[in-house]
Amino acid sequence: MSILWILIHCLPVICFVIAVIVVVQTVFFVRNAFFGPTSQR
Amino acid sequence: MALHRIDLVVIGLYFALLTAFGLLIRRTRGFEDFAVARRSVPTLMVFASLCGAYIGPGYSLGFTAKAYGVGFMLLPVWMCFSLQTCLVGIWLAPRLRRFPGVYTLGGVMMSAYGPTAKQLTGLVSVGLCVGFAGVLARAGGVILSDAVGISLPIAVFVITGVGVIYALTGGLKSVVATEGIQFGVVLVSAGAVVAFAGRHITSYAALDHSAFTLTATAWKSASGPELLGMMLLFLMGETLIPPYANRALAAASEGASKIGFVFAGIFSVIWFTLMATAGVLANTILGHVSQPDGVLILLAQAVLPAGLLGLFLVALAAIVMSTQESLLNAASVCMTRDLMPASWLDRKQLYVARISTILFAITAAMLGLRAPGIIDGLLICYSIWAPTILPPLIWSLLGFRTSQMGGTLSILGGGLASGSVLVFHVASGNPAIAILAGLSASLLGAIIGTLAQRLWRRA
Q: By CA distance, what is A40's nearest residue in B?
């Protein structure tokens, strides 16, 4: 099997999965840090 | 660059949303919040913001341009950065969390080597961050002016200005949050370029052969000392520069800092491979290109449909902005904590940090109009930082006995030696030689200083 075929097909999928995880985590981070109960003075 | 109307809408919408997001999350509760996000950043956000900070134009456009010419040949060299990030995660980053009340590397140096070392570290940190931000302002300005057809000075100020909005208002917490979003956009669009480019390949066996030939030819013509020099640069150049150290200091725990750094190191292997693959694909799909520096943009233009091309250009701006805002935040925090009186009240420190952010952003934009090329600029920054700050910093973080005079002379020796190599163009101003000369002088300074301090005490 071609090495570049594996890279071209796998790397974008890995990037997409990491992107989804990071964006979801960011939403939780923003909620907790700026709008959650601990964000109040 | 002629863009479809959908692409222009995507670009406009992204900048508008980012500005709105910056204004929405502008709340800052004191200087600790601004500087280290109250040390509450969880593991995944340490990872994401660290990746967002290190993926700049050099590690995206620059690497693809290199891979376009040499295939996968430089991948082992780039992976020295991955190794460095993992090692920092295992040994150094968690130790930074052990200094209570410390917001900068200057603070760490203060506890090990005294006030002079702190001020010198602050000075080098601010200079490095502002210089680095200037180089990035130019890179981002060139991308934006090419994409939407505005003049370079306006593009440089737009790129710097949008990043400043949230670095100024919400401090590190806002920077980390926006970096998460920007990193997500960068990942999706870079992945899309490679995935869509793959559709243009008719024979993967021929592509494998072409990549192998490209890599083998470059390997044969490479010189050993040059490769070793580059490995040294990637291994040491960016180690614990202020924006990365800020993430370690802001982590919710030692574990969060450690795992965040190690994950970021492992991810960099994936990213570098992706960029190298994009370069090889560009070589096959585009053929000869007169300016390889922009080969990633040309590849995206050739393979991405309308809408996704706009998202890709936005991602390029995000790559610049996420690194730049980290640098501006780090510079303002270093300025306030390392170079201003420590006795100032929290509110005054916050005020000074915000004013510094604006002043540094203006300076970076002005520098951006005169900055050298991205790679040259980064190499100058690397070759000053590594020999000046790293030896005494690592020595103290690993818990060895320290001497005030030894630390101070080590910083001065490293800085003067590497600076002299660059200024007087010794060995053609080779950055690797500058680092080696600086490291030797730094070691010598540390030994002389430690011995002098012992003799002084005995006398």
A: B29
Asked if A29's CB is within 8 angstroms of B45's CB, the reply is: yes
- Averages of pLDDT over each 10 residues, chain B, 459 residues: 83 85 77 89 96 91 93 96 97 90 93 95 94 87 79 88 79 90 94 97 94 95 88 90 94 96 98 97 93 89 92 88 90 96 90 94 90 72 89 93 93 94 80 91 95 90
- Does the pLDDT at position A21 exceed 80? yes
pLDDT of residue B372: 66
Instruction: Please give the angle made by the CA atoms of B345, B346 and B347, to the nearest 5 degrees.
Output: 95
Contact residues on chain B for A11, CB-CB shorter than 8 A: 191, 194, 270, 273-274, 277
Residues of B with CB below 8 A from A33's CB? 25, 37, 40, 173, 177
> What is the DSSP code string of B329-348?
HHHHHHHHHHSS-TTS-HHH
Q: Which of B25, B27, B191 sits opposite A16 (nearest CB)?
A: B191
**Measured between alpha carbons, how far is B187 from B174 in angstroms, rounded to an integer?**
20
Spell out which residues of chain A touch residue B197, defining contact as CB-CB under 8 Å.
8
Q: Token pair of B114, please?
A: 């005294």
At A2 the three-state DSSP class reads coil
Residue type, B342: A
What is the enclosing helix (H) or strand (E) of B145?
helix B115-148
Chain centroid, CA B42 distance in Å: 21
Show residues of chain A in contact with B166, CB under 8 Å: none
Q: Check B277 against A11: CB less than 8 A apart.
A: yes
